[in-house]
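Example for tutorial group B:
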């Protein structure tokens, strides 16, 4: 029967031969995603963050992975994704290596915690500039490279790292992350608009919304909430996020398996956002 025909099923979750750019790719979820793309068959993954030394260290780790495709490699491209000049530098440097890009992971992000009454204007602006404006600039400036070999059957992909904080309340109280939660809500909505705008150009746009994953950005929030163990126990799945959880959803969205997913915001939080009693006391943390 026709419904049972799945031609070339083994390649469904492959990104063989694809070229990817990962901002904020030198550590945390970005580095995990870059590793996943390389191990799923990508031929070239550009790692970008503000610090050159961090990019180079990440590329050294990635290029030492034992199961990469022949010739596959990670390339360091330091750039500040919060500024248009930084984004243009990233695009031009990538274009000097390759005539096309297949996958753009807009992962670079920032947060800031401070009480409402003394929350700094410059901190709010910094978070919004990187988490929202920077993503829009990345999408616009990379669009020509993303269109180069995109097609109806094999669209290029933009994947935005958002957060469950953009779908519900963020952290309130003494370490209120007002700009962060607002920026993640904004970038999810931006992603949906871009999905409709860029779909006819054969580019899908989706957001992933992680919950708590131990990382440099989230460790402080974990401690504010009583530690990783307490947050894990409160999760419906009784654990925090693991690298494989992010790797799986990134590869899914970037591979043929996700080619008809467009405008989605996928929570990767074990269901914590939807559990009963979700509201926390003021000052308690939510990523």
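The residue assignment follows.
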């Amino acid at each position: 029967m026709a419904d049972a025909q799945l031609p070339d099923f083994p390649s469904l979750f492959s990104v063989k031969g694809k070229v990817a750019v990962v901002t904020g790719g030198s550590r945390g979820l970005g580095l995990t995603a870059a590793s996943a793309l390389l191990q799923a068959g990508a031929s070239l993954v550009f790692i970008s963050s503000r610090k050159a030394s961090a990019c180079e260290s990440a590329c050294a780790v990635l290029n030492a992975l034992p199961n990469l495709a022949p010739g596959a490699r990670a390339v360091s491209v330091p750039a500040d994704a919060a500024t248009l000049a930084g984004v243009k530098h990233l695009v031009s440097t990538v274009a000097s290596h390759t005539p096309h890009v297949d996958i753009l992971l807009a992962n670079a992000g920032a947060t800031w915690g401070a009480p409402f009454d003394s929350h700094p204007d410059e901190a709010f602006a910094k978070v919004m500039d990187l988490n929202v404006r920077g993503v829009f600039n990345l999408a616009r400036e990379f669009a020509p490279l993303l269109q180069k070999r995109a097609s109806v059957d094999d669209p290029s992909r933009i994947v935005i790292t958002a957060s469950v904080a953009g779908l519900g309340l963020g952290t309130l109280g003494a370490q209120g992350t007002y700009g962060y939660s607002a920026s993640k809500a904004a970038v999810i909505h931006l992603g949906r608009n871009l999905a409709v705008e860029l779909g006819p150009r054969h580019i899908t746009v989706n957001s992933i919304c992680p919950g708590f994953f131990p990382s440099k950005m989230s460790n402080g929030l974990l401690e504010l909430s009583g530690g990783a163990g307490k947050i894990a126990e409160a999760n419906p799945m009784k654990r925090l996020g693991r690298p494989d959880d992010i790797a799986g959803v990134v590869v899914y969205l970037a591979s043929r398996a996700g080619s008809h997913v467009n405008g989605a915001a996928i929570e990767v939080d074990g269901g914590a956002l939807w559990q009963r009693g979700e509201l926390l006391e003021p000052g308690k943390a939510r990523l």
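DSSP finds eight helices and seven strands in the chain. Compare this with the pattern of hydrophobic and polar residues in the output above.
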